[in-house]
Amino acid sequence: MIIKSKYIILKDRVLENGALEIKEGKIHKIIENTENIKDFIDYKDNIIAPGYVDTHIHGFSGHDFMDKDSDGLRIICKDILKMGVTSFLPTTLTASTEDLNDVVKMIGENKNAYGAKIQGIFLEGPFFSDKYKGAQNPSHFCKPNIEKLKKWQKLSNGLIKKIAIAPELEGVEDFIKEARKLGIYVALGHSDASYFEAKKAVEAGASIFVHTYNAMSPLHHRNPGMVGAALTLKNVFAELICDGHHVHPASADVVLKCRGTESVALITDCMMAGGMPEGKYKLGDFDVTVKDNTARLNSGNLAGSIVKLKDAVKNVINWGIASPFEAIQMASQIPAKSVGIDNICGIIEEGRDADIIVLNKNYDVKYVYLNGKLVSNN
User: Fold this and answer.
1) Which residues belong to CATH 2.30.40.10 in the chain?
2) For residue 285, what pLDDT band results from cuts at 50, 70 and 90?
3) What is the pLDDT of residues 208-226, one digit of tens each?
4) What's 275's DSSP letter?
5) 297-327: buried (b, 16+ CB within 10 Å) or exposed (e) per residue?
6) 8 A C-beta contact, residue 137 and residue 95
7) Could you say which of 147, 152, 261, 349 is the most buried, measured as most Cβ atoms within 10 Å of its Cβ?
8) Rounded mean pLDDT of 241-259?
9) pTM for this entry
């Protein structure tokens, strides 16, 4: 099968009027000159792009990974395909050790569920501090414990790919070094750390800032805080929730101008109400009300998001802060790179799985291919 379009988003450029030959579920050949090809599917003025990679997502379609429900996990995997997501990291919340044991075991046992591919697990907590707890339950906060992480890794069949911690906690630097030895990427967030505490954590091996601006010590001219570290430290990635509620477009632009789009990952932080109508939902132990495109605790604080990654891409384009090429990369190659899975997803390249999406001129997801098979026609 050959599919052709006016634009194809490659690793480092946009190929115009090219085509992809797909064989046995793989991208067999990238065709630059299409003059002599005859039998092909022509997507005309549309854009062929790599499937999106969401490295921070808690749930969708009324289900949450913390429910420990394999049927719910399968529904999430299937339904986020329509959003253009073909690979993702199921994300946990702070909970008891026993609950996290059960959750990571359940995810590990269902790694090959049909739908968007589970490329790892993101543990968001429980090693956080109180001040910027967000929608995390502080009753389960604890000091970094490498033995717990090793157990979770074993229970998940080696699927833990990323863990978030607060860098001001005791024992953080040793924990980061040991986590990296396990092949786990360390993110920083839900923290009141100083700039220097964040810097020390990065020097120890941490490399991601969780939903930049949100749930972290802010930038002040005499105290740069976590935000200052996220904007300026080298060799790190900054997550952004670009729903227009978590971060003002101008503030998102500051991150892009400071870091460059090559180290900013668009994420959703989506909770179970993603793809659902307004109403009452749960995020972990907390009641959440979804209204006016936001999910909020009873206190009024934001509790995750309901944004779809395809809409985050459209937003940064429409806000005028990123080109279409940059926006698509920030939802595919860059998040994949941030957790070391860019060798298997997030890039259109010969020999890779044909997990690709087709966007129209408004950047809406029209078609989704998984392993070379059309699985969604929106």
Assistant:
1) 2-48+350-377
2) confident
3) 999 999 999 999 999 999 9
4) T
5) beeeebbbbbbbbbbbbbbbbebebbebbbb
6) yes
7) 152
8) 98
9) 0.97
Residues of the chain with CATH 3.20.20.140: 52-338
List of residues 6+ apart from 138 with CB closer than 8 A: 94, 128, 130
d(CA 359, CA 8): 10
pLDDT tens per residue across span 48-104 = 999 999 999 999 999 999 999 999 999 999 999 999 999 999 999 999 999 999 999
CA distances in angstroms from 66 to 53, 81, 239, listed in the order given: 20, 20, 22
Task: Classify domain 2-48+350-377 at the CATH topology level.
Answer: Urease, subunit C; domain 1 (2.30.40)
The pair of three-digit structure tokens given for residue 278, joined into one six-digit string: 């307004």
| HEC per residue, 232-244 | HCCCCEEEECCCC
* Residues 295 and 269: beta-carbon distance below 8 Å: no
What is the pLDDT, as a whole number, of residue 36? 84
- Closest residue by Cα to residue 225 from 131, 125, 137, 303: 131
Contact 86, 368 (CB under 8 A): yes
Catalytic sites, residue numbers? 269
CA-to-CA distance for 219 and 227, rounded, in angstroms?
A: 5
Structure tokens at 141: 């906060």
